[in-house]
Amino acid sequence: MDKEAPGASVLVLGGGVTGLLAALRLKRAGRAVEVWEASAESGGWARTLAWPGPDGTPGYLERGPQGLLVGRDGPLERLVRDLGLTLRRQEIKGPRWLGKDGRLHPNPASLRGLLAAPGLGPLDKLRLLGEPFIPCRPNTTEDLEAYITRRLGPAFAREILPALVAGVLAAPPDRIGVEALPRLLRMEAAGGLLRGGLAQGPLRTRYPQDGPYPGTGALTRALARHLGCVRTDRAAESLEPAEGGRWRVRTRGFAREVDTVVLAVPAAAASRLLQPVAPRAATALLAIPHADLRVWHSRHAPVRGWEHGVGLLIHPPQGRGVLGLVSMAREDPRAVPGLLQVRTYLGGAWPVDPALDAWPGVHAELRRWLPDLGPAVQVREERAPAAFPILGRGHAARTGRILADLPRGLHWLGSARFGPGLPDLAEGVEAWASSWA
Ligand SMILES: Cc1cc2nc3c(=O)[nH]c(=O)nc-3n(C[C@H](O)[C@H](O)[C@H](O)COP(=O)(O)OP(=O)(O)OC[C@H]3O[C@@H](n4cnc5c(N)ncnc54)[C@H](O)[C@@H]3O)c2cc1C
Q1: Ligand 1 atom nearest to CA at 216
Q2: For 21-65, what is each residue's pLDDT tens digit?
Q3: Which residues line ligand 1 (CB under 6 A)?
Q4: Residue 202's pLDDT is what?
Q5: C-alpha distances in angstroms, 58 versus 50, 85, 213, 331?
Q6: Which residue's CA is minimally distant from atom 5 of ligand 1?
Q7: Looking at the predicted structure, is the pLDDT value of residue 420 above 50?
Q8: Which of the listed residues 12, 18, 45, 429 should we mutate to test ligand 1's pocket, taking the one with most ligand atoms within 8 A of CB?
Q9: 346 C-alpha to center of ligand 1: Å?
Q10: Ligand 1 atom 53: residue of nearest CA
Q11: Atom 51, ligand 1: which residue's CA is nearest?
Q12: Where is the Amine oxidase domain (predicted)?
């Protein structure tokens, strides 16, 4: 058995963004902490992978988020400042569309897009203007479809919402509980979507840069460097009680005893580890549904007018499984100079037409919407199995029951608790750390 590191009383399992953030908070609170990460590199989904161009020119792709939604001064913004990272602009300044009924429409996230939104008649648009006068229910447990129907009317919820939600949460709005969306809840508490949105201030899309290294992975890289206690290639294999209320965690060839274990691994992995010591929590964790996302990265000849990035959201029942695409702007250092870099995502909670199992089918489907998108000079598929937890109605109660079933000294964090958005994870970890400390 390996000797325990002196004073290493907290062991964080999982070196994704959640585990790294939790470890940083604990370290700052004066705890001796170590992180075990199963794979050869930390970062989990939040990693930027090298993807050189056809002639070997350096280039990158994002395994997970291509940008971070940052506001005025949330935990994520403070963290980026604290780590000394630069935030670079990522907003799409080129065309952004909603694909519906076989046609492209301006993205309804803008005022112009809203006025031209397909499927909304004059009365439906008037209904949108009434949103600030709808009474608020700060502790609502509605699903997202019911919530938006109440605030913006049934036509918006039916015609527009599914594409907006699929592009972010990979699931239909009637399967998502508003209680799992902290920003929406805060807006509801502050007077609704318009009033609450104004009070919270605008959100911008940025990506971090760590010295010359650009991308979301810069954040997790910098976190791991600051921590200096991340052990990679260390998959926790079992968890058992040890003497004196401590916990023993085993990995290949050795075990470690600690006072506290923080499980920041995906829900299925947390469930496996917890099965012998907290079977009810383990079963509840396994019951949280997750969606698989298929992501194709491709490089193409540039398209005139798309120099500053393009985005397409497809009304999900009409995309045969393609949910949308987003490109990088010409000046983005992750892209290869002279080529347009696109990422297309499929699946989530929707079935994918078998014709889209390989790139030629995906490209043919994309050209149905975007005839200007030429053949790819490079493609690479990076699947994201079970990457998106689907946190339905009753999420808060379910989470409460899981936490109540955990024995003393065990903690559970991650996207299946806080939601998949990095801002949600950062906020969730901050709240957890302050209540624990
Ligand atoms: C394609 C895609 C696009 C996304 N886009 C966005 C976006 O635009 N905006 C946004 O905010 N979020 C986005 N997300 C979501 C976000 O990336 C994730 O929710 C977040 O990275 C999850 O972090 P995590 O640390 O909780 O989990 P993970 O990243 O899953 O990390 C868990 C870690 O635990 C490790 N592990 C597993 N088992 C063990 C074990 N037994 N022992 C030790 N370690 C173990 C894993 O190797 C992994 O590194 C996207 C995700 C994907 C996949």
Answers
A1: 17
A2: 999 999 998 899 999 999 999 999 999 999 999 999 999 999 999
A3: 13-19, 36-39, 44-46, 64-65, 235-236, 264-266, 269, 293, 295, 384, 387, 414-415, 420-422, 425
A4: 85
A5: 7, 21, 11, 14
A6: 65
A7: yes
A8: 45
A9: 18
A10: 64
A11: 64
A12: 18-284
pLDDT at residue 6 greater than cutoff 50: no
Q: Which residues of 231-251 are buried (b: 16+ CB within 10 A; e: fewer)?
A: eeebebeebeeeeeeebbbeb
- 22 and 413 Cβ atoms separated by less than 8 Å: yes
Domains of the chain by start residue, with CATH: 10-45+216-288+390-436 (3.50.50.60), 110-204 (1.10.3110.10)
Distance 44 CA to ligand 1 centre (A): 4
Nearest CA to ligand 1 atom 48: 44
Residues 6+ apart with CB under 8 A from 236: 13, 36, 38, 249, 250, 251, 265, 273
Name the E strands within 122-277. Answer: 204-210, 213-214, 230-231, 238-241, 247-251, 254-258, 260-263
pLDDT of residue 16: 98
The string of DSSP letters for 296-350 reads EEEEE---TT-TT--EEEE-GGGTTTEEEEEE--TT-TTSPTTSEEEEEEEEETS
Q: How far apart are CA 52 and CA 111, in angstroms?
A: 39
Q: What is the pLDDT of residue 346?
A: 97
Distance 17 CA to ligand 1 centre (A): 7
The Cα 207–Cα 283 span in angstroms is 37
CA 276–ligand 1 middle distance (angstroms):
25
Q: Which helix (H) or strand (E) holds 88?
A: strand 86-89
Cα atoms in the 13 Å half-sphere on the side-chain side of 200:
22
Residue 171, classified by CB atoms within 10 Å of its CB into exposed (0-12), middle (13-18) or buried (19+), is buried
Distance 47 CA to ligand 1 centre (A): 9
Q: What pLDDT shows up at residue 200?
A: 87
In order of 79, 179, 339, 405, 427, the CA distances from 183 in angstroms are 18, 10, 36, 27, 10
| 151 in Cβ contact with 161 (< 8 Å) | no
User: How far does the centroid of ligand 1 lie from the alpha carbon of residue 65, in Å?
Assistant: 10
Q: Name beta bridge partners: 324.
A: 313, 345
